[in-house]
Amino acid sequence: MKRHNPDDIRSKSLSQPFQSVLGERVSRRSLLLGAAAATGASIAPGFVGSIFSGEAVAGGTASSLTFTELKRVYDEKHHVAPGYVADVVMRWGDKVAADAVDFDPAAQTAATQAGQFGYNNDFIAYLPLPLGSASSERGLLYANHEYIDPQIMFPGLVTTEDDGGKAMSAEQVAIGMSAVGASVVEIVKEGGKWKPVQGEFNRRIDLNTPMTISGPAAGHSKLKTAADPTGTKVFGMTANCGGGMTPWGTVLTCEEFAYESFGGDADKTAFKGDIERIGYENSDYYGIARFNDRFNIEKEPNEFNRFQWVVEIDPYDPKSTPVKRTALGRFGHEGATVVVNKDNRVVVYLGDDDHMEYLYRFVSKNSFNANDRTANATLLDEGELSVAKFEADGTLNWLPLVHGNGPLTADNGFADQGEILINARKAGDLLGATPMDRPEDFETNPVTGRVYAVLTKSAKRKPETVNPANTRPENKWGHIVELIPPGEGKDADHASAQYKWDVFIMCGDPSKPETGSKFSADTTTDGFFMTPDNIAFDPKGRMWVATDGMNDFDYADGIFGVDTDGPGRALPKALFAAPSGAECTGPAFTPDGTTMFVAIQHPGENSDNIENLTTLWPDFVEKMPPRPSVIAITREGGGEIGA
Ligand code: FEO
Ligand code: CA
Ligand code: CA
Ligand code: CA
Questions:
Q1: CA–centroid distance for 505 within its chain
Q2: 352 Cβ closer than 6 Å to some ligand 1 atom
Q3: Among 360, 376, 343, 352, which residue's Cα sits nearest to residue 456?
Q4: Is 354's C-beta closer than 6 angstroms to any atom of ligand 1?
Q5: What is the pTM of this model?
Q6: Angstrom distance (rounded) from CA 450 to CA 447
Q7: E-strand spans in 146-277?
Q8: What are the structural domain ranges in the chain?
Q9: Among 427, 467, 480, 539, which one has the highest count of C-beta atoms within 10 angstroms of its own C-beta?
Q10: Is the CATH number 2.120.10.30 carried by domain 6-635?
Q11: What is the pLDDT of residues 468-503, one digit of tens each?
Q12: pLDDT per position as a tens digit, 79-108
């Protein structure tokens, strides 16, 4: 099991399940979502959209994606569709800083790691150089480094995947703290190939990097520590999983499961319930609390509250201080994707990746100004955070997480707006938000204006806790929900209090009806996917899905392209297959759509230990462990990905 995969985490949200709603209102919507079988109703032909297989399908016949799809394959190597090329751009240990030393896994130190590309790249972004240009041949590669795999990272470390933190030496723990965070690397395309440059923008950010805390919770009493009585300064970020880019050229990076970097007994703190609601289980999985008091919740409980935020980083200014934006709330952050609304306010869609957790939306108070980058720098400090409630009749209501709104008062433990943001999950519980099947990426189609929420899977969903938007008990395969704001394309109103919604895809093997999967009827045995995680849209508005968890079904995780509209709606095609044990993360396009960058995370993580590896990707050199890496996918002879 992947260490960062929270399948074993207890579900703690309090919102009521929707089974009563389903029982009372067998609506068109609930039929669409698969409630027919449960209620004994039959699906009336005619109103079921083309996404559905079986008798009610209108039938998709033509994907706009013209490439020949990759045949299903899963082995120690990566594979890409015919006519496409996948080149490695940056590997764990490659030089980021100009004075970095060559990577030697047997001689690694915290100092050497601090100058090198970190471990387990996840969200990636491509930012054109110079700032303001649309260059697709020179830019900055930003990469999150989510977590480490000690059991396959350190030669000689005797451990299992569950006791790394207890077995690691002080130096190994320090290496781990340097190997997480993020990298910024200048890259250029020469002769059709991308390569890194040790340029002025290059930097590493890790668990020791000074950061500031801004927004409504900055300076809150629950964010003050002995080392920082102001409650506004913190060292480092970790568990940075998904993310997004702003239109002013910064990156939003999401702290997802930072609680695994903490240790200590929650019973010995004054706010055990709040700590556990965020997922804390005293794992100290990376050994950090053994050597750093601030990560021991018994010694410094408020340090815990200074993690699990969205962090804004300016890759164009290598001296800039990353900022934790408290207005975006504190939970198990995954995606933080930005769209400029038709009224120029900035909207951020935010997922909380855990079982039975929620989807959130932030709408800025002030407007984006394309001509004033400095003014945009504080846009994410003021605005309204809300949480999604899906109704069985196909409406979606955004419920404001605002102090004084309904139960969000001091009587219920929220003294002020800061407390609501620090404990956003508890506020969502009280408002009756809809518990989802582990929200991962959450992103707007730039062409249609529709928004897609990716629910990776949740085997912990019970029959008694299904709801209109999460209809499958023991959802092993995941699904993608389509959110429909009023208006279309650039006229979509992403600040509206009410949307409509639909299901886009129900994942699973379409040849196995028992999975309840729903794709276009033309989906091939090579093209269907499961356990979706990150998505990206190409310039034409086609969705590209990166999966995380197909290994559990003995399939490679990969990249799949799929139309969201037209005859090819919900008809995925396979482009890329990752090597053994790896998930695909990221995808990021150059502005012209001719390069797709993909992060290959945790190759070989399914290995028992470093002596018995399932892959040596990408180097395939003895004594060199598998290395998480970012690759560039291009077409032989050039041209748009997918065409
Ligand atoms: Fe780190 Fe939600 O995947
Ligand atoms: Ca993810
Ligand atoms: Ca994305
Ligand atoms: Ca995942």
A1: 18
A2: no
A3: 352
A4: no
A5: 0.93
A6: 8
A7: 181-190, 193-197, 203-205, 210-214, 233-235, 240-245, 251-255
A8: 6-635
A9: 427
A10: yes
A11: 999 999 999 999 999 999 999 999 999 999 999 999
A12: 999 999 999 999 999 999 999 999 999 999
